């Protein structure tokens, strides 16, 4: 039973004895006034317009370009040439396959390599936590192209990495799997996957860390109090609670990796080219814009489907 | 008695710290290329490519701009990064406030529009924007690069600022209003300082993204607008000068120093208050 004469809490209504300079504005609520109702639209307008013109509209131009035919000299015209899509898949099918294969392997490796580091920073680092986080971001401070070129040195023929792997007969195993050949690492699929994994690893670690860091440590204690082995604590408590980070990290790794052409170009060979290489070549060297547009559309469609299915399966609809 | 307490001491230690060791190994993988870049900035290579160690030299450090066009491309990259950061941070902050503070029709569409550029491979965005400029007969150059960079930086600013604004306590602004602060004063003296860390994070992120972008830039650059990443890309085909490593190392050291000083002063301020 509450007394009906209790005064309203401060904030919901101004005390009557205080002279208010703008009477009515705090009482009626901001949503009711038409000028205020438009505020979010004005705030959103510059960014929204920019993205509408330079992100959404280009896709319509690209759609129209992808069904054009003609040549650079005579100009391209829309002829509803859907054969562009069939040609792209027929010519560059292997490139698409390699893109998604390499990107999937790199994503999996990023998860396997990145999880222990994210876990260490979140639970075992103590006062070194912020320093370790800086060290994860630090590689970004050097241009990624320069760092990718450094892998050419690290993996070079006759270099220490090749020497060690050779003496351990690891290269024989990877050659059997078709990942390397001729006792080299450079210009092999393994080098491309290694480069992709390296380049996108921080994009896996940071979301993993931010979701691990939020886990309440008393949950770990509770699990241990109930006689769970460390492995069980991880499987039943830690890993499920870090799922948002796993989903965000895998998406942030897989999407850019599947469109990448830098690692394939710098560390690979003509036999390791990905779909990005094909799009780049058609757009910038061959100047066959319809072919580039068709491939870019196929890549986008596949990624949208994969991402949607993945997000539905993992039950994370809202990431932003 | 579980697995953790069995076996001799070194085995137990290994078992307990296996995660940390794996984490440190990952850190080595992450930082190894930076070490190589640093070491090879002191190299004196035999040919045009700086991939094999020959002899120690400080030649490149004493003459960092000794390579034709490299420092010019660095200047262009800085210009574009500063301008696109300014515009993207302003527009992105407005949008973040709209999406974090208001309920309105079309909010879902707004959120999707912000999210999609981050879920799109760069090569797709670059090629489609390039198609737009080709079809509308816009000349590729400084302006087209700037437009592209603002486009892909926007989303990251919105995400950074929105996260901060949503975690802010609205009671602080109510308190300001209760103390007779006008809407403008409240915004300037309470809301903006509270949101500042998010805005700063967004600005730093967009500067880094713009400065280091290669793929989207390659599809939207003109023949005379060679940014620093494009210079490195070209060098990778023709021959990589040691000066590229000098720039990479210098940027790395400066940025690490700035971050460490920032963290040090922040922790001192925290311990004092």
From TrEMBL, chain A:
<keyword id="KW-1133">Transmembrane helix</keyword>
<feature type="domain" description="ABC transmembrane type-1">
    <location>
        <begin position="96"/>
        <end position="310"/>
    </location>
</feature>
<keyword id="KW-0472">Membrane</keyword>
<feature type="transmembrane region" description="Helical">
    <location>
        <begin position="41"/>
        <end position="61"/>
    </location>
</feature>
<keyword id="KW-0813">Transport</keyword>
<keyword id="KW-0812">Transmembrane</keyword>
<feature type="region of interest" description="Disordered">
    <location>
        <begin position="1"/>
        <end position="34"/>
    </location>
</feature>
<feature type="transmembrane region" description="Helical">
    <location>
        <begin position="186"/>
        <end position="209"/>
    </location>
</feature>
<feature type="transmembrane region" description="Helical">
    <location>
        <begin position="131"/>
        <end position="149"/>
    </location>
</feature>
<dbReference type="InterPro" id="IPR000515">
    <property type="entry name" value="MetI-like"/>
</dbReference>
<comment type="similarity">
    <text>Belongs to the binding-protein-dependent transport system permease family. CysTW subfamily.</text>
</comment>
<feature type="transmembrane region" description="Helical">
    <location>
        <begin position="291"/>
        <end position="311"/>
    </location>
</feature>
<feature type="transmembrane region" description="Helical">
    <location>
        <begin position="100"/>
        <end position="119"/>
    </location>
</feature>
<keyword id="KW-1003">Cell membrane</keyword>
<dbReference type="Pfam" id="PF00528">
    <property type="entry name" value="BPD_transp_1"/>
</dbReference>
<protein>
    <submittedName>
        <fullName>ABC transporter permease</fullName>
    </submittedName>
</protein>
<dbReference type="InterPro" id="IPR035906">
    <property type="entry name" value="MetI-like_sf"/>
</dbReference>
UniProtKB/TrEMBL annotation, chain B:
<dbReference type="InterPro" id="IPR035906">
    <property type="entry name" value="MetI-like_sf"/>
</dbReference>
<feature type="transmembrane region" description="Helical">
    <location>
        <begin position="187"/>
        <end position="209"/>
    </location>
</feature>
<feature type="transmembrane region" description="Helical">
    <location>
        <begin position="20"/>
        <end position="42"/>
    </location>
</feature>
<keyword id="KW-0812">Transmembrane</keyword>
<comment type="similarity">
    <text>Belongs to the binding-protein-dependent transport system permease family. CysTW subfamily.</text>
</comment>
<feature type="transmembrane region" description="Helical">
    <location>
        <begin position="246"/>
        <end position="266"/>
    </location>
</feature>
<dbReference type="Pfam" id="PF00528">
    <property type="entry name" value="BPD_transp_1"/>
</dbReference>
<feature type="transmembrane region" description="Helical">
    <location>
        <begin position="112"/>
        <end position="134"/>
    </location>
</feature>
<dbReference type="InterPro" id="IPR000515">
    <property type="entry name" value="MetI-like"/>
</dbReference>
<keyword id="KW-1133">Transmembrane helix</keyword>
<dbReference type="InterPro" id="IPR051789">
    <property type="entry name" value="Bact_Polyamine_Transport"/>
</dbReference>
<keyword id="KW-1003">Cell membrane</keyword>
<feature type="domain" description="ABC transmembrane type-1">
    <location>
        <begin position="74"/>
        <end position="262"/>
    </location>
</feature>
<keyword id="KW-0813">Transport</keyword>
<protein>
    <submittedName>
        <fullName>ABC transporter permease</fullName>
    </submittedName>
</protein>
<keyword id="KW-0472">Membrane</keyword>
<feature type="transmembrane region" description="Helical">
    <location>
        <begin position="80"/>
        <end position="100"/>
    </location>
</feature>
<feature type="transmembrane region" description="Helical">
    <location>
        <begin position="140"/>
        <end position="161"/>
    </location>
</feature>
